[in-house]
Amino acid sequence: MASISSAFSLSLALFLGFSSTVLHLTEAQQLVQGLSWSFYDSSCPRLESIVRKQLQEVFKDDIGQAAGLLRLHFHDCFVQGCDASVLLAGSASGPGEQEAPPNLTLRARAFRIIDDLRRRVHRRCGRVVSCADIAAIAARDAVFLSGGPDYDVPLGRKDGLNFATRNATLANLPSPTSNTSALLTSLAAKNFDPTDIVSLSGGHTIGLSHCTSFTNRLYPTQDPTMGKTFANNLKANCPTANSTNTTVLDIRSPNVFDNRYYVNLMNRQGLFTSDQDLYTDRRTRSIVTSFAINQTLFFEKFAIAMIKMSQLSVLTGRQGEIRANCSVRNSDNLSLSSVVGEEEGSWSAF
């Protein structure tokens, strides 16, 4: 418990230090039609303060949940767009995205945190804010409250009516065993350039990994791009290729969102193939180096890439819905009352 408290204290100190600095990137970012920087200014003006205040309490208890919320947003947006489809539980039509292999290690509490935030927001404003927007705000606050940049988030997403298939989920979430060529090819299809990809990879500056995501680099032979001491320490924690243990993604500052991830790569201490190969590959090596020596630059580029990612294939206007429960489509939600139905009308004109 002491280690959690000290980690949060460090993150809180960083939060206080950055609290007056917001990266205003609104003029540099082109928004998808239907999204706005001021979408809820009239219908739910306290939205972002409600989310941030509650997440401060969550992270005070467990700063590790910041990484869980950030990863949840990534896994939502990369598959079928930022429509909160990853939050949907499976149904008679088949298993949900949560049951696809890449999502089995998403933190269970992250799903509960999002729906708790949804309850708090809807209690204050009515059913006018989507789960997809709450997930996007929560990801931003997870970054900021663990020491990273603060930035504006465009809002106005609607929640999807369907979840992606297992095959679609597998096809759209890059594997930790992917090399840089695979990443560049896969994510170019989503309009990400090399700087975006290296920036978004910096999300691995916080969080945990299961051993099975990287033991291919340890067994049967060690990946030569991995530092020997680093590899030996990992073997001690992951003694077999199928070990069920976990380890931190960033050995220097695992609970603080900073640029140390890139310092790790320069020292051959990247955990995944998809991490370390960013420094090995000449096409992305200079970007890694620039972020390792300039945290301000990394923060700016990360925020730009996150805003771009948060607009992937979004539903807006009359598309989708605003769920009354983030894990259930409204058509399947038997608890919806006529009162909630009346509240729904207040957002249909947007």
Automatic annotation (TrEMBL):
Q: Which cysteines are joined by disulfide bonds?
A: 44-125, 77-82, 131-326, 211-238
Q: Which reaction does it catalyse?
A: 2 a phenolic donor + H2O2 = 2 a phenolic radical donor + 2 H2O
Please list the residues that bind heme b: 204
Q: What is this protein called?
A: Peroxidase
Please give the biological process terms from Gene Ontology that the record holds. hydrogen peroxide catabolic process; response to oxidative stress
| Subcellular location per the Swiss-Prot or TrEMBL entry | Secreted
- Catalytic positions are 75
Q: InterPro entries, alphabetically?
A: Haem_peroxidase, Haem_peroxidase_sf, Peroxidase_pln, Peroxidases_AS, Peroxidases_heam-ligand_BS, Secretory_peroxidase
Question: Where along the sequence does the record put site: Transition state stabilizer?
Answer: 71
| Record bears the keyword Protein transport | no
Q: What is its main location?
A: secreted
Q: Does the keyword Calcium apply?
A: yes
Q: What does this protein do?
A: Removal of H(2)O(2), oxidation of toxic reductants, biosynthesis and degradation of lignin, suberization, auxin catabolism, response to environmental stresses such as wounding, pathogen attack and oxidative stress. These functions might be dependent on each isozyme/isoform in each plant tissue.
Bound how, and how many: what does the cofactor note say? Binds 1 heme b (iron(II)-protoporphyrin IX) group per subunit. Binds 2 calcium ions per subunit.
Q: What are the boundaries of the signal sequence?
A: 1-28
Binding residue positions for substrate:
174
A Gene Ontology molecular function term of the record: heme binding
The family annotation for this protein states: Belongs to the peroxidase family. Classical plant (class III) peroxidase subfamily.
Q: Which Gene Ontology terms of cellular component type are present?
A: extracellular region
Query: What residues does Ca(2+) 1 bind to?
Result: 76, 79, 81, 83, 85, 97
